[in-house]
Amino acid sequence: MTAQRIGLGPPGPPPSWGPVVVSLAAGLIVLLGGLFVNGCRLSKLLSRSTGEGDTGPIVVNPAVVVDSALAGETTPHQAKFAVTQGSAWFATTGSAWIHMAPTRGSARATVQLSLDPRGLTPGLHEGSVKLQEHDSTGPSTAVDVKFRIQQPILKVDPGSLSYTAQTDNSVFHDTLAVSNAGDGPLVWTATTQNHSSWIALADTAGRGAGKIAVQVSNAGLSYFGTFTETIIVTAPGAKNSPARINVTLRRHRHGGDGTAP
């Protein structure tokens, strides 16, 4: 018998990868490329989250600084704001009463402000601090600064008191009203200029609007005539302070029927 080769033949050409294998290889390259790009993006995001390499608009907190001082104060008031995002910047202001430190910095910086009330008139003063990237064409932002100079205005009513004693033991009661015609805190005290014994004050100190009880009496006066005294109300830093209220007491000699001769 002649032996036959079963399933064996001459060697053929090498197998082809075919379109399916090529497609899989191309997809793998695209996948690896996507992972590389996304990895770079992820790296940048992680870098920003850790505060390294902050870029973009300058962000500050707070965006508005508000403070106040009394007219006549000489001590600067302190305030601050934080730079929370942005690249290198420099700060400027057009207001002579605003001072700052530092004037240059980067993200995650705190800027200290000093607001000087000296020479400022009563009322609201508005200024700003501008933060600009070192590249003058880059992003910028501003912090608004509002500084109110308060001016309390002392007002006392009535402006004078006058009495005439009809007996040898006349007693008079009156009230002075203290008020603030301006803004800002009003702290006041009251006294008499000569500390005369025939006039007495109650409520000799107060804050804001208040009342001063006045008692006048000719009891104990040894002679007839006209007596004068001045009530002085003082409110430090307030306009129209001190207020001076003139008080007059007339003590005349009377006839037998109780009337003046």
Give a quick summary of the entry:
By secondary structure, this protein is mainly beta. It is 12% helix and 46% strand.
Distance between the termini: 181 Å
Shape: rod-shaped
Helical segment count = 1
Radius of gyration: 44 Å
Regions with little confidence, pLDDT below 50 for 5+ residues: 1-9, 24-33, 35-53, 255-261
Structural class: mainly beta
Give helix % range.
Answer: 10-25%
Q: Could you tell me the strand content as a percent range?
A: over 45%
pLDDT averaged residue by residue: 82
Number of beta strands: 18
Largest sheet entry: 5 strands, mixed
Give a description of the structure.
The chain is mainly beta and 261 residues long. 12% of the residues lie in helices and 46% in strands. The chain is built from one helix and 18 strands. The strands form four sheets. The chain has a five-stranded mixed sheet, with no helix packed on it. Strands 11-18-17-13-15 form a five-stranded mixed sheet, with no helix packed on it. Strand 8 (123-133) and strand 9 form a beta hairpin. The longest helix has 32 residues, at 18-49.
Structural topology:
Layout lengths: L17 H32 L9 E3 L2 E7 L6 E9 L3 E5 L4 E4 L2 E2 L3 E7 L7 E11 L6 E11 L3 E4 L2 E6 L5 E10 L6 E6 L6 E4 L2 E3 L2 E8 L7 E10 L8 E9 L10
Descriptors:
mainly beta, disordered C terminus, single chain, 1 helix, 261 residues, 5-stranded mixed sheet
